[in-house]
Amino acid sequence: MDKLTVAITSMTQHMTDDEFMRDVLQRIATGPTLSKDLPRNDARRAMRIVLEQRADEVQAGLFLIALRMKRETDEELAGILEAIHAGITPHPVKVDDLVVLVDPYDGYLRSTPVAPFLPAVLAACGLKVLTHGVHSMGPKFGATHEQVLTAAAMTLPTERAQASALLEHDNCGWACLSQTQLAPELAGLTTLRTRIVKRPCLTTIEVAVNSLKPHKAVHLVTGFVHKPYPPVYARLASTGGFASSIVIRGIEGGVVPSLTQASRYFTSTDGHTLTQADLAPSQVGIQRQERAVPLPASLSSDSVRSVKSPENPFAQQLAEHAAEVGLAALAGEPGYARDSLVYAGAVILVARGAAANLSHGADQVRTVLDNAQANAHFRQAGAMASAAIDSAY
Questions:
Q1: How many other CB atoms sit within 10 Å of the CB of residue 217?
Q2: More confident residue, 303 or 236
Q3: Which of 34, 233, 350, 358 is the most interior residue, by most CB within 10 Å?
């Protein structure tokens, strides 16, 4: 640490929580030119105070908004992620390697999301895959993984032990956890995040929450749209204990690339060095007119899609449509949904070293879709989760 950081740390370490939060807010909430960046330890302490709800709601909301307005530093993001992990005891899962696949928590509004079905497809290809999220999150309040899977009549695990059992089972190999089980303290801020309206730094950080501990290594797969984010996610993944990160330029910031345009993804094993790979749909034999699974006509008007509020009725309708086309793809039906699963699946298989090239990866995905193995893995997760919940009562 430099001399100024040491001096600030020395002054703040003996402060009460209230004194400390007042001091932090005075530093970060003084406008675009006068605001000061927080040392990592101060960001960590402030976030612990917020997570433990020892700060009042005004202070907590101002802390998150001021960081966003100032623009968070790498050290601040790392400190906040460390604060979240400080409230989590990692749960063991008896697999060697685990892939954690995370789409934006606030979901989709402009296209039909089929990534919720991707973990089952990848599991049928031999990977162990966890996805996590929430039912609904602002500021977009779009269709989320949890909404889509629920609309597909999927029973989701209600605790981490159940998710571990699903991941360990060879005929399943995937699970979806709610943030309520993954990081309960962070989930406790959902109402606050809704009330502050704007997108806080937590939207970026929560994809890198690492809550399950396999025998060997855990790997993060997530998406981006804006150019600055791949190095941010790579650094967060390293801070969170992930052995590697795969960051894909995808539709609405998710992991499924455009079906019509060139794209790219980045990999990193140290959080600093990124390796870029260029993508084109033609590499996996895809030629489409629309960049993603189209919205149905009933949901395509801007007046309908502009609704951004909790319990967004559009999001639920979109989730139901996504469930319909996703289940059809798992059943072997051709179309945009199948192509999206083939393309994204191939990218992840190559990035994880499970396929020699994109063509080979696409062949693997098409095989498990055509022979119903992906569908079987999907159904197995629901059956096992239902049985586990029933046995608990």
A1: 14
A2: 236
A3: 233
Q: pLDDT tens, 45-104?
A: 999 999 999 999 999 999 999 999 999 999 999 999 999 999 999 999 999 999 999 999
The position carrying tokens 């909430």 is: 29
Question: Which helix (H) or strand (E) covers residue 223, if one does?
Answer: strand 217-224
Q: How many residues does the chain have?
A: 393
In whole angstroms, what is the distance from residue 184 CA to residue 21 CA?
22
Whether residue 12 is predicted with pLDDT greater than 80 in this model: the reply is no
Cα separation, 374 vs 218, whole angstroms = 22
CATH 3.40.1030.10 applies to domain 92-391: yes
Nearest-angstrom CA–CA distance, 149 and 140: 19
C-alpha to C-alpha distance for 29 and 21, rounded to whole angstroms: 11
Beta bridge partners of 143: 108
The tokens for 101 are: 């696949």
Q: Is the peptide bond before 139 cis (omega within 30 degrees of 0)?
A: yes
Distance CA 348, CA 174 (A): 15
How many alpha carbons fall within 13 Å on the CB side of residue 274?
Answer: 20
Sequence-separated (6 or more) residues with CB below 8 Å from residue 57: 192, 195
Q: How far apart are CA 35 and CA 67, in angstroms?
A: 9
Give the pair of three-digit tokens for residue 292: 């993603």
The residues spanned by each domain of the chain are 16-86, 92-391
CATH of the domain spanning 16-86, picked from 1.20.970.10, 1.20.1250.20, 2.30.40.10, 3.40.50.1820:
1.20.970.10
Rounded Cα distance between 191 and 386, Å, is 29
What residue has token string 């990124």? 274
| 393 or 93, greater pLDDT | 93
* Residue 27 tokens, joined: 């530093």
Instruction: Note the pTM of the prediction, 2 decimals.
Output: 0.94
Give the 3-state secondary structure of residue 363: helix
